[in-house]
Amino acid sequence: MPYPATRPRRLRVTATLRRMVSETTLAPDDFIYPLFVVHGVGVRRPIGSMPGICQLSVDEAVAEAGRALGLGIPAVLLFGVPATKDAVGSENFADDGIVQQATRALKAAHPELLVIVDLCMCEYTDHGHCGVIRDGRVDNDATLEILGRAAVTYARAGADLIAPSGMMDGMVAAIRAALDGAGFAETGIFSYAVKYASAFYGPFREAAEGAPRFGDRKTHQMDPANVREALRELALDVAEGADLVMVKPALPYLDVVRRVREACDLPLAAYNVSGEYAMIKAAAANGWIDERAAVLELLTGIKRAGADLIVTYHALDAARWLRA
Is residue 281 among the annotated active site residues? Predict the structure, then answer.
């Protein structure tokens, strides 16, 4: 009925009523907290472009994960900074690699914590690319064998989920075959199924020390202009055996999150990436926005678009605010 009989504002009169009729809910259970692990003891090295985020030694990562669990955050996503780098990223698939060490320590200290391990070569190689380089280009099929080897070492260390992020064709199938062949049929694959060649990854490359030494990653990461291609990438990863899927980045691609949600019934995550985090932090530091309000609004927007889970560097702060 028309005004004045119909007054939508009646449902906004009080905070309690607004909360009760809210269509989208946000909770610490929705968050996955990324951690950057490095060699050493007692290391907590601030990342300049990501205020509040640090590179952490294994002991500090265990403590940080404990803080996350205490706030109701159930999962971490591990990235490793190796002691040395080479052409094939050997520490990526070494049983004593930094992420393997961190995984064992985290599962020993916090058995209930879900440990997700990012699987890519860029942080571990001396050239900074996501695969084996042959004749100046990433060799897709040669890379798959290394990804499979690395996945087995992560599963052996106790990882709950393997998260391949390099956008290699056939990566999910190769990792699934390697895991199954090594007796890890119950270890899940959390695929970065839809990952764009984005300008918003800059701070991450400082944090993970994984910027490419030449060229770019546009031969494997997706063109920001494309969404039909995203659905094709999604369908391939689902067919190859992905258990969960991800869209990365989040904020410039909320339309893609929605399209993926409509096309797929697997659990869906969106990655609120480092550049998105850094923009909020910079604006808040200048007094231009209310950080708490802005963070909770943007995370709610990601959930509203269709994400079940959100990978975010805001996780600790957002969890505190939600529990306040």
Answer: no
